[in-house]
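User: I'm putting together a teaching handout on how sequence relates to shape, and I'd like one worked example. Could you take N-acetylmuramoyl-L-alanine amidase from Folsomia candida, show the sequence you're using, and then write out its predicted structure as tokens right after it?

Assistant: Happy to. First the sequence, then the structure tokens directly below it.
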Amino acid sequence: MFKSFTILALLGALHGSLGLVPIYVDLIPMSNANRPGTALSGTRYITVHNTANTSPGANARAHANYVKNPTTDVSWHFTVDDHEIYQHLPTNEVGWHAGTSAGNAQSVGIEICENSDGNFNTAVRNSQELVAKLMGDLNVPLSRVVTHQSWSGKNCPSRLLGTWADYLNGIGGGDPSKCYGTVTASGGLNVRQLPDASSPIVGALAEGSYVQLMGRATGTPVSGNSYWFQVGAGYASAYYINVSSGSNQLWCTN
């Protein structure tokens, strides 16, 4: 059924019963007016919306078809429902979703489906997983995950505005078996081959990066903190990583 689409990624499910959540790349044609092809500015945000469409069948695929219609005058990057995600624009291109020029120029837009025949709470959890992934991919800190309302004053995402702090707390914490953190080191943080300040550098994390922590080891103390988090293929000092709440992993929370 999906052979015409490219599977961009498979997000780990927030609960085992969800299985895997596929992301289908189904881009708006370049010839459409709602895909201007303008590059996003260097300062990035992630803007969260609700679709405000409760009609049965108004899922992610339906919205993918909607934004590809040549007469549609709005656009955004991803639509999320309770079992799949569609990508409509590359994450380095401007979409028309924030209601202001500044919001459009600086942010990746995510719409969460509200179709009455779907599970909204599951769609929200899937969106949190997507946001966490994009934060890591695009080096967007949690402080720049914002609502549509923050740009234009519109009452959107209407179903999340009253619990926005809870939504942010759930990013990266939707699956309690995972641990995430934000890099606080001014100028960035080196990733080293071993948990040792003299070990070879194998990478770097930008200040404000939101990253998944794969484990913890004891190594060279940094300002009195001897813990190092495993990040990708190396280790970074725990002193410079602010761990997010929501994990049930003791090594992450203690």
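A couple of points you could highlight for students: The mean pLDDT is 85. Residues 120-138 form the longest helix (19 residues).
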